[in-house]
Design brief:
Shape: elongated
Helix content: 10-25%
Distance between the termini: 36 Å
Number of strands: 11
Number of helices: 2
Structural class: mainly beta
Largest sheet: 7 strands, antiparallel
Order of helices and strands: EEEEEEEHEEHEE
């Protein structure tokens, strides 16, 4: 079982030092964070904050982490190579960009969730929402989705 790393739509598996890779769950934000070291021997490219990163299994493409690089620290590794310490956050921050500010009458919880996703997020699908029972009226005053 090998791991594949894709950064900004380009495979960078050889650059990532897998022994440095660490994924943690941040309980206060319900987000997953990843930090790792990347070594680029020929100065041909460098990771940038804002680049998408995906770490998956080569055999079945199962994603172990996917998100955005949020911080890059650069230092020389040798005369010809650069080392980058990267910090990444999963897609949670994209989902939580806008606060929910609305009221819902009593209805199926799945309908409320679908409405929140359609009205307060961009780029997320409602296709995985399972039908849920009705809940009492709900009021959202500046709450993250």
């Amino acid at each position: 079982m090998g791991l594949v790393t894709v950064i900004a739509d380009t495979t960078r598996t050889l650059a990532l030092e897998f022994e440095s890779l660490r994924v943690t769950d941040a309980l206060d934000t319900n987000a997953a964070l990843m930090d790792a070291e990347i070594v680029v021997p020929d100065h041909s490219w460098h990771p940038k904050a804002g680049n998408e990163i995906v770490v998956s299994t080569s055999s079945d493409s199962l994603r172990h982490f996917a998100g955005t690089i949020t911080r890059v620290r650069e230092r020389a590794s040798s005369r010809t190579a650069m080392r980058y310490s990267i910090l990444c956050q999963d897609y949670t921050w994209l989902f939580d960009r806008r606060m929910v500010t609305t009221n819902y009458d009593a209805q199926a919880a799945s309908d409320i969730v679908a409405s929140i996703i359609n009205s307060f997020t961009t780029g997320f699908s409602t296709s995985g929402i399972q039908v849920a029972p009705a809940v009492a009226a709900q009021r959202f005053d500046y709450v993250l989705p």
